[in-house]
Structure formats: C-alpha cells, structure tokens
Amino acid sequence: MPKRVRDTQFYRKANLPLIQSVKKDIFPIDWNLDENKHPRILVQPADFSGCGHYRLIYPLLHMIKNNGVQGLAINRMFKTHEMARFNPDTVVFQRQVSDEMVKYTERTAHINQAFVITELDDLLDNIQENNIHCKDFNTRHFNNLYKVLHISDRFVCSTEFIKNWYRKYIDDIVVMENRLNKDIWLPLESKRGTSEKLRIGWAGGHSHTGDLAIIVDTVKELHKEVDFVFFGYMHPEIERYVKEFHPGSSFKDYPGKIASLNLDIALTPLEDVPFNHAKSHLKVLEFGILGCPIIATNITPYKGFPVVYPKTNDSKGFTDAIRELMSDMDSTYKMGDTLKQHIIDNWMLDDYYNEWQKAWTPS
What we know:
Layout: H1 9-13, E1 40-44, H2 50-67, E2 70-73, H3 80-86, E3 90-94, H4 99-110, E4 115-120, H5 139-151, E5 154-157, H6 160-166, E6 173-175, H7 182-185, E7 199-203, H8 209-212, H9 216-222, E8 227-232, E9 244-247, H10 254-260, E10 265-268, H11 274-277, H12 282-288, E11 294-296, H13 315-326, H14 329-346, H15 353-359
Parallel strand pairs: 1-2, 1-3, 3-4, 4-5, 5-6, 7-8, 7-10, 8-9, 10-11
Helix pairs in contact: 2-15, 4-5, 9-13
C-alpha cells in the first residue's frame, strides 16, 4: 500500500454515476467494490492493440483471475471524483506524453494519492527518421516524458536497453519482458511443408520500411525458388516478387492470422540502430511459438534464442542464411520445434503474472 493517506468515504457515499466510456468488452465495470479488498490497480493503455494488451491488459487480467486483484483499464482520463471512487492502490500510465497527461499524472500522484507507474516499451526519443512514427513525436513530447518519469514512483519497461536509456530520469526502474498467453497461442496450429515451394515470410506494420529494406534484394533474388509471404506491410520495391500479401488484421484476430500463413521459415530483419536495440523479442516469440524456424538480425532483442543469425545484416546475409536452411529442411524444422519448446518453457505470461504484480506494487 502507498504511504499516502486515503480519504474517499465522501465519494463512496455520494453514489456517483457509472462511467460509460471504459472498454466494457475488455473490463466490465463493477462499482460494488469490496471496501477491504486490495490491491486495486488502474491501467491507462496508450492503445488497445498490441502494446496495450501485452504490457497492461493481459498481465492485469491474469492478476484479476488468479490473485483476486480489483482491476480496471480505461481509455480516457478519470475525473478526480471517479479516481477517488475507484480508489486505486496503483495507476499505470503507458506512453502518455501529452500536456494533458502530464497534468493528469501529477493530479493522480498528489491528489488521489495512488502509487504511480509510467510504462514504456519503445525508445520514444530516438526513433529513426525512416520510421513513419518519427513525425508523431517532437521535443515537447520528449520533455513531457521526462516530466512524467520525474513525477512517477516507478518506471516499468520492457528491456534493459530502455532501462539504461532513461535511468537518469528516475531511480526506481523494473524491467518486465514481453511474454505470450498460453490460452491464445498454444491452441494455434501453423502447418509446414504445405506448398511445392517453401513459404518464407515476414509480418509487421508500415513503420518497418528501413528494416524491410535489408531484405529487398533477397526477395528479388530468391522469388523464383521460394514463395514469399508478407503480412501487414510490403516494401513497394518487392510487390511484384511477393507470392502472397495479407493485409493487417485486428489485434484480436492477429495470432490466428499469423498461424494461417503456414510459414516454413520466418524473417525478422532489423536495422542496427538504438531504437531497434531497445525493442523487445515479440516477433521471435510470435513466430517461434508456432514452431517456425527464424532467421533474425543478430541484434539485442533477438540474442539468446535458438534462431539463425545472418553473417551480415544485409540482403546477402539473409540470402545466404535462407539457402543454408533450405539445404536441410529436416534440421531446419527441428530448429523450429526447439524454438517453440524454448518459448513454452521460458516465455509464457501465465508463469510470470506474480512478478508483474510485484512490479506494480510499492516496495
């Protein structure tokens, strides 16, 4: 429990109206709170897609189901009386860098007396210029991020690289790495060897233009020997060389869509820049849990996994690595099986939600 004094009886007796703008399909609201039941955790996702789910919603759902936490995820700012009514022990703010969110964080910390956590899974103040999201952030946003870190009681992030990057702004930092849900990913089946040609693929959004540039010549050189399958985004230079392109899907449908690609080999190229060193290993987890062998850039987030690293981080390196795996597909498929078991043994959220709760609880 935070050390600050709580005085919320006035708001509870006031029988305040229910809140209508919370994502009810994710967290149904129950204002019949058990007065003596703690902890209460309120999370403020920056989005309700991948980042919001992996970093906030899924961990909280496990805490609610298994530890009896009273939890709520909201997609707007609570008013002061609403915050007092829910009376959270912890509030987690994710990637909130607007002027309004700085004020909201200050209010939550100093008026509502909650234990305030800032959550981040990207290097916001060092996005490479060819990333489409670079234009979404400017110096004002960066300064707001530093202010929020200063206001917060704790900073929770996804990688050691991010921790070291921002440690000068806050002392209390906890790294909680991204993991997968068993009930979502383990039932999925991705088939291998379904086509006459090997199916080699990539998945991601349009922010990966620079990353995909690494394998442009690989696709051009090998497109007659293998079938390239792309999901979400496709570099304009390779459109005519790609066998299949699948547009992006909703986050709810995303795991099933990835499985349905039926890849024999997955590619995860990344530019060697600070922003990518700070990234998590989610792509390896998502492909690997499906038993898919992976060729990955030898960069910070992908180290320590049983994957193949190209000798050079360019098209030649990826082309050579693909040819090497193609020469012995029995061994390559075994590599995929090994990777899947490694992820099941080490990277499932179901085995780590207690650690998440500790990260969200005042020491």
